[in-house]
Design goal:
366 residues, 9-stranded mixed β-sheet, 16 strands, Metallo-beta-lactamase, Chain A, binds zinc ion, 7-stranded mixed β-sheet
């Protein structure tokens, strides 16, 4: 069978490359001249351009050899998928009951067949609703959850599925450390007190990969945040990326906790126009006042953070004008906005996100 070949010759290709490089140079020189004529120092402006985000590059290029953390757009709920460079997976929470079909489709799209860990932060339906379906559909090696009881049907369904599938069922206890893949471990930091309301029984843990770290909090509120600090957790909380507790509610992310975590970037998982008004203004203010980059699944769809062990890159499944407001967004130059659009195109193309599926199906189900 004949295969089609491009007809252009080598000379023509080389001509195109030279023309592209020449055009790029003209553009760079023109913008430097523009800055110079406005009385600015071109190099200072370029440096400040990169300082817009606190050390995190907004890139869209999906790199397989990185740790990828996908904060899935599951409406007013939580579900976070982690992929190791070798293709091992871990899932933190599993959306709502009615979000299960879309979640299963998404996991299959990502190539998930087996989960090393399924962490169920606490037995509220917006975190464990789809967990029974996940357990039935994929081979789950270990389930990690807090030592709490709940009489809800959703939780009973999950416990039945764990028993039926025969996976390892572990209680998360502060201080316990688990290995995910080579060079990547995670340590449980809470809950200490499981007699509290379910939000404050959330499994809180820090995941470390090389020099980078992520803090996952479930729906932990101030009460649990303070109990972690009181139990000596302050020196373990520091992380680059914070999954903001309880969908950005004002009852979470207290000042002492935020100071201890001191993240560069904060991700809020919540549904568009949700009935709770999440994220609350006070939480956004606290993050913005510290210059922390805020990413929201209601505005940006699924958010991907990649780590090569040293650097983090952040990508969003969609842009929105609303995502550009806020303290960090307001600082963005039009060039940064253009760059973001370009990266989004690459991101959407390379990961093959079905934006329609992710945004419409999940938000409708929320
Ligand atoms: Zn929740």
């Amino acid at each position: 069978m004949a295969t089609k070949k491009r007809s252009s010759g080598k000379g023509e290709e080389r001509g195109k490359v030279i023309l592209t490089v020449a055009l790029a140079l003209v553009c760079v020189l023109a913008s430097l001249l523009g800055i110079y004529l406005r009385g600015g120092n071109p190099f200072e402006e370029i440096l400040s351009f990169f300082k817009d985000s606190p050390g995190i590059l907004e890139s869209g290029e999906y790199k397989e050899d990185c740790l990828s953390v996908f904060f899935l757009d599951v409406g007013q709920a939580d579900s976070i998928l982690l992929r190791s460079p070798e293709g091992k997976f871990m899932l933190i929470d599993a959306a709502k009951n009615d979000g299960a079909p879309a979640l299963l489709r998404t996991l299959k799209e990502f190539g998930v067949k087996e989960l090393e860990y399924l962490v169920l932060t606490h037995p509220h339906e917006d975190h464990i609703g789809g967990a029974d379906a996940v357990l039935e559909q994929f081979a789950v090696k270990t389930v990690l959850s807090p030592d709490v009881g709940s009489t809800s049907k959703s939780w009973r369904d999950v416990l039945d599925a764990i028993e039926k599938e025969g996976c390892k069922d572990l209680i998360a206890r502060p201080g316990d450390t688990y290995g995910f893949f080579e060079g990547c471990t995670f340590t449980v930091l809470g809950p200490y007190d499981t007699d509290e309301d379910l939000n404050n029984c959330s499994v809180v843990f820090r995941l470390d990969y090389g020099e980078t770290s992520f803090l996952f909090t479930g729906d932990a509120e101030e009460r649990e945040e303070l109990s972690i600090l009181e139990n000596g957790g302050s020196s373990f909380l520091k992380a680059d990326v914070l999954k903001v507790g309880h969908h950005g509610s004002s009852t979470s992310t207290c000042e002492e906790f935020l100071s201890a975590v001191s993240p560069r970037c904060a991700v809020i998982s919540c549904g568009e126009n949700n009935e709770y008004g999440h994220p609350h203004r006070s939480t956004l203010d606290a993050l913005e006042d510290r210059g922390i980059e805020i990413l929201r699944t209601d505005l940006s769809g699924t958010v991907m953070v990649q780590s090569d062990g040293k650097n983090l890159t952040v990508s969003k499944a969609r842009s929105s004008d609303a995502a550009m407001s806020g303290a960090s967004g307001a600082m963005k130059t039009s060039a940064a906005a253009n760059r973001e659009r370009l990266f989004q195109r690459i991101f959407l193309g390379s990961v093959g996100f079905r934006r329609k599926l992710l945004s419409e199906t999940f938000l409708k189900g929320a």
